[in-house]
Amino acid sequence: MLCVAAPLALAQGVPAASAAAAPKPIVAAGTVPDEATRAAVLSRLRELYGAQRVVDRIEIDAGVVAPPNWQQHVVTMLTPALQQVSAGQVDISGNAVRVTGEVANEAQRQQVVSDMATALNNPTYTITNALRNGSGQQKLLDAALANRIIEFESGSATLAPQGRVILDEMAAAMRRIGQSRVQIIGHTDAVGGRDANVALSLARAAAVKAYLEEQGIAADNLSVRGLGPDQPVADNATPQGRARNRRIEFRVL
């Protein structure tokens, strides 16, 4: 997700789609004026992303001229908010900074650069916000679900065994999108009363949330909503249509 240097660059690839695949590495490349700067940048990246993910391709050139206190400023602007960026890069050349990549929504796009500027607190630096308000994270969750239905025991909020298998894959996908918040939305068919169906859809969404928490997904990153029969995707007049309408939706906020 990054790129940094005097010129220095930090870059992260898009997480792999396979649940068994390891997270993509964080590559630090470019040229810095001394070993102390190199060590400080690598230390900060390892703190944010874990030592195993950071790849060091930084070169040292004593002839590089950097602005005053450049090492301190570079490390300071590497804030935890950058973890919300997918397939991105941070390029730092002197006091010019450019941030690219994809975030889940406009609020995150503004937050990432705002956090960097606030931490830096130096008007001589210019940060260009080239982040995209994209749907990469949503596509990742959609690909993990793959149009499958998370099944429950009939008329209840008890997950069926196959439903738990799918949620294990969803948990792996959620770990790859970092700290983004995800809303779990329950839907039902139109059989029975609407109020009962809304309550059932909410209970099923809550059961999914509880299971994902057991798999290590932070509770604060998950919310639930029950829409009952209000948003069908198929005809409730057929058994096949009703089966498609009884579903769980995952939406990146």
SSE layout and pairing:
Blueprint lengths: L7 E5 L13 E7 L2 H15 L4 E7 L9 H8 L8 E8 L2 E8 L2 H15 L5 E8 L2 H10 L15 H16 L5 E5 L7 H21 L7 E5 L12 H7 L2 E5 L1
Parallel strand pairs: 2-3, 5-6, 7-8
Antiparallel strand pairs: 1-4, 4-5, 7-9
Helix pairs in contact: 1-2, 2-3, 4-5
Task: Please provide a written account of the structure.
36% of the residues lie in helices and 23% in strands. The protein has helices at residues 35-49, 70-77, 106-120, 136-145, 161-176, 194-214, 239-245, and strands spanning 8-12, 26-32, 54-60, 86-93, 96-103, 126-133, 182-186, 222-226, 248-252. The strands form three sheets. Strands 1-4-5-6 form a four-stranded mixed β-sheet, with helices on one face. Helix 1 packs parallel to helix 2 (70-77), helix 2 (70-77) runs antiparallel to helix 3 and helix 4 runs antiparallel to helix 5. Residues 1-7 and 12-21 have low confidence and may be disordered.
Mean pLDDT across the residues is 87
Radius of gyration: 22 Å
Question: What characteristic shape results from the CA principal axes?
Answer: elongated
Biggest sheet record: 4 strands, mixed
- How are strands sequenced across the largest beta sheet? 1-4-5-6
Derived from helix and strand composition plus strand pairing, the structural class reads alpha/beta
Residue share in helix: 25-40%
The proportion of residues in beta strands is: 15-25%
Q: Which consecutive residue ranges, at least 5 long each, have pLDDT under 50?
A: 1-7, 12-21
Number of helices: 7
Distance between the termini: 20 Å
Order of helices and strands: EEHEHEEHEHHEHEHE
Number of strands: 9
